[in-house]
Amino acid sequence: MTAPAAERSAPAAPGAAVRWTDVCAAGDLIPERGVCALVGGEQVAVFLTHDGDLHALENLDPFSGAHVLSRGILGTRGGVPTVASPMYKHVFDLRTGRCLDDPSASVRTFPARLHRGRVEVGR
Amino acid sequence: MRLVVVGHGPAAHRLVEALRERDTAGAWTVTVIGEEPRTAYDRVALTTHLEGADLAYPPHGDEVEVATGERAVAIDRAARTVTTSAGRVVPYDALVLATGSSPFVPPVEGKDLPGVFVYRTIDDLDAIRAYADGRTTGAVVGGGLLGLEAARAIQGLGLRSGVVEVAPWLMPRQLDEGGGAMLRRHIEGLGMAVHAGTPMARLEAGDDGAVARIVLADGNAVDAEVVVFSAGIRPRDELARGCGLPVGERGGIVVDETCRTEDPAIWAIGECALVGGMVYGLVGPCFSMAEVVADRLLHEHFPEASTAVFEGADLSTKLKLMGVDVASFGDPFAGPETGALGVTYTDPVAGVYKKLVVSDDARTLLGGVLVGDAESYGTLRAYVGGNLPGAPEQMLFGGTEAAGGDLPGATVICSCNNVSAQTIRTAIAGESLTDVPGVKACTKAGTSCGSCVPLVKRILDAELTAAGIEVSKALCEHFAYSRAELFDIVRVRRITSFTQLVEEHGTGRGCDICKPAVASILASLGNGHILAGEQAALQDTNDHFLANLQKNGTYSVVPRVPGGEITPERLIVIGEVARDFGLYTKITGGQRIDLFGARVEQLPEIWRRLVDAGFESGHAYGKALRTVKSCVGSTWCRYGVQDSVAMAIRLELRYRGLRAPHKLKSAVSGCARECAEAQSKDFGVIATENGWNLYLAGNGGMRPRHADLFATDLTDDELITYIDRFLMFYIRTADRLQRTASWLEALDGGLGYLREVIVDDRLGICAELDAAMERHVAAYSDEWRDTLEDPDRLRRFVSFVNAPGTPDPSIEFEVEREQIRPLLPIRPVTGAVSR
Ligand SMILES: Cc1cc2nc3c(=O)[nH]c(=O)nc-3n(C[C@H](O)[C@H](O)[C@H](O)COP(=O)(O)OP(=O)(O)OC[C@H]3O[C@@H](n4cnc5c(N)ncnc54)[C@H](O)[C@@H]3O)c2cc1C
Ligand code: SF4
């Protein structure tokens, strides 16, 4: 990982034009923790990893039905950046939203970027 | 020798990989012709493409030529060539057709209108997603396995969704009527409409010329601007038809049990093949066929290669739908005419329906259906065709915890990849595997739909136990050390941050196991506030918000009530806070009051009121001292011989905030009558005429353990010194999440050794342990007071970073017995990941 944090962003869904929503200042994010933002009425968990990557996931933990993923612990599993749901500890891939403990489950991901010192989530 | 493969789906991919692995001499040169614009991907997981998942299978080596976006259009059997849409003519010595199937679209009026889709490829999903943007209604035609998955997926795109099924109930091919009825309730519970039992008449367009509704035969209409057909599949056998190869009456390229067509140079595998009169629509049999053909292709040149045949396949299935457990296995429809008996179990409240079909002597399992709770799917499926280990009704009530070691070797554990129990056992022994990821990588078991993973884990555990292999003490994949070893590393090397520890002594970036464990070690060693600096990122949500997470995402609040003694004024404050914030209140077993239902942004306001009234954090959220319970003791009780309340308060104030490998509980009783139940606590104190008796390592909970009597007739100071040392020694040497009870049971030398360490100072560490406790006592400050004084920390207590004043709208309550109770939107899937 060599690119400066400001230029990094998670990929947008192919083909779709992305509408960016300003969420907070870059400084509002604590490395390796999440925050939750309301984006177009939806709850989106936004995470900053220790090496400066941004990830945005649906905040709903599919196993409990509670909107809590933003409050999970970040980490890695075999090199994959992850968040563990605080509810029943299922671990999700931050890049794809797939649940690594139960391949039949996943959460949606959103593009996210740092833009002029602000954190933005796309839809 | 030239092998040409037409189609690049899962079956083709598996064939090429199997051949590459076994054709070590390089006898075959492989060319793949695939029509989709991309190489093979995991179609089983297609729906997750909408969530951004990368489904691509790993590429074959460079020696395999793969053409994408090119369709095979004709086969010349005499010349042995395939002509493609790009005008290429590709010669072959062997040709494998792996063209899969296409969704069946019934010839209904309006089927070609804009807005009508199928659900088969990545391109289909991209088209649906693009079209759905800005539209509000959708429906899926077909209430089978795939239809339900598709209906849920378009709901996820923001459409009001439903399914139209001509049969009288959902998943008619897998479920019986009772199961179908229960499934309907679950689907409707997810907010999808179900229209079953009425055929479709036509699709109608709206003013814009695009589809707007589905009209049913009874005249009712279902609004749908997006219509997805999922009404079965048809094998893609057009190439075979074009060159005169026989196909089945209802489609499918006719092959023998080796998957060879009438033309010895041409084979067919996967969903396009008709083998034994069947077309298989599940990936497991497709993989098996690929394996068979790989072997056969080699057999012609290496006679020692396997001559396996395709023997049919298990059609057990599990629905991949979040929030709904549905599974069927074996033959769930076998009826009394064949001597089969059905045993059913229905729990309408929990939405559970289970049915087992057994032979007339109730010993052999023939099949079954599970709706609402499919936990036993893996185990039950493994028993199909074999003897049940217990009575059927016992199996239905979840008594299906097969030990894993008991399953017959031939039992198929993973039906997607056709892996038997024996294969898994051989791999575990042969490759010295010790974890599930290892077994998955080595045997492919559990790598497709994943439903057999719990069973794989049980087999693994049984094998390891049988082999006497000690399961690794490593904390997790990031640290090769036990918690006690890490504690020593942190202590001796004076490590002050997780980053330093993981960089110098670990790998990766940690996880929800090691981060809180390291946070606890740092806290036990007195390295500052648990929310200061980098430490904040290590804590689990309870420690992060200094409150206990409850099932609906709200938190509970427990103020400390030392010794259970509380003034009326303070009781009133708790009551007022609960009333003003609408919290549910309950008295705990630890003589305190728990306030439930607080949203994160309310926590600081609640605590400001509590702190102003003199309350402190009760650390109910932490792996720390919880409470020191007491009886009323000699002050009031006619029998009491010491002031148990005063001692309990003194102990609680001394050890409050002490972080440990697990929670710590204590109690003090004023006489031998033991009203405070001190012998069930981590450290319990019982008054005697001459002082105090100290009991250690008791436990209530799941595995109750009576505490051991450690020392008798102690003075106040002796008592405190011994408890200090006991706690510090435990904190230093215990494993992660090990309570004092199991720690003492595992301690070499047991209670006698503990006495030598604490009383006789055999290890010469007592001075160190005493000093560590003194540091803790001196450094204590109330975490909640500190937090309220720190604007930076307070900023975390919002539901939404971009709308700090907005409460989480998903949190709702109803009223029961005059108090709130959580209302959950989706029926939760129970069962936590155990690690
Ligand atoms: C949404 C969805 C969910 C599913 N879930 C499950 C599940 O949970 N469990 C399960 O077991 N199965 C499931 N399946 C079924 C599983 O995906 C199929 O059984 C499997 O994909 C069949 O593999 P195949 O290689 O035979 O055919 P396919 O995957 O259909 O691949 C055939 C390929 O050949 C190409 N092709 C066809 N004709 C030509 C030609 N003339 N020239 C060049 N290329 C051609 C096609 O475009 C296609 O790419 C699911 C399927 C879908 C659509
Ligand atoms: S333990 Fe003894 S002192 Fe305490 S309440 Fe019971 S009888 Fe009284």
Automatic annotation (TrEMBL), chain A:
The keyword Oxidoreductase applies. InterPro entries: NirD, Rieske-like_NirD, Rieske_2Fe-2S, Rieske_2Fe-2S_sf. CDD domains: Rieske_NirD. PROSITE patterns: NIRD, RIESKE. Residues 21-121 form the Rieske domain. It holds the Pfam family Rieske_2. It comes from the Bacteria. Keywords: 2Fe-2S, Iron, Iron-sulfur, Metal-binding, Nitrate assimilation, Oxidoreductase. This is Nitrite reductase small subunit NirD. It comes from Actinomadura fibrosa.
UniProtKB/TrEMBL annotation, chain B:
PANTHER family: NITRITE REDUCTASE (NADH) LARGE SUBUNIT. Keywords: 2Fe-2S, 4Fe-4S, FAD, Flavoprotein, Heme, Iron, Iron-sulfur, Metal-binding, Nitrate assimilation, Oxidoreductase, Thioether bond. Its EC number is 1.8.7.1. Residues 412-461 form the BFD-like [2Fe-2S]-binding domain. Residues 550-611 form the Nitrite/Sulfite reductase ferredoxin-like domain. It holds the Pfam family Rubredoxin_C. The keyword Transmembrane does not apply. It comes from Actinomadura fibrosa. InterPro entries: BFD-like_2Fe2S-bd_dom, BFD-like_2Fe2S-bd_dom_sf, FAD/NAD-bd_sf, FAD/NAD-binding_dom, FAD/NAD-linked_Rdtase_dimer_sf, NasD-like, NiRdtase/SiRdtase_haem-b_fer, Nit/Sulf_reduc_fer-like_dom_sf. CDD domains: NirB_Fer2_BFD-like_2 (cd19944). Residues 316-382 form the NADH-rubredoxin oxidoreductase C-terminal domain. It catalyses: hydrogen sulfide + 6 oxidized [2Fe-2S]-[ferredoxin] + 3 H2O = sulfite + 6 reduced [2Fe-2S]-[ferredoxin] + 7 H(+). Residues 622-747 form the Nitrite/sulphite reductase 4Fe-4S domain. Its cofactor is [4Fe-4S] cluster; FAD; siroheme; [2Fe-2S] cluster. This is assimilatory sulfite reductase (ferredoxin). Pathway: Nitrogen metabolism; nitrate reduction (assimilation). Catalyzes the reduction of sulfite to sulfide, a step in the biosynthesis of sulfur-containing amino acids and cofactors. Residues 2-280 form the FAD/NAD(P)-binding domain. Belongs to the nitrite and sulfite reductase 4Fe-4S domain family.
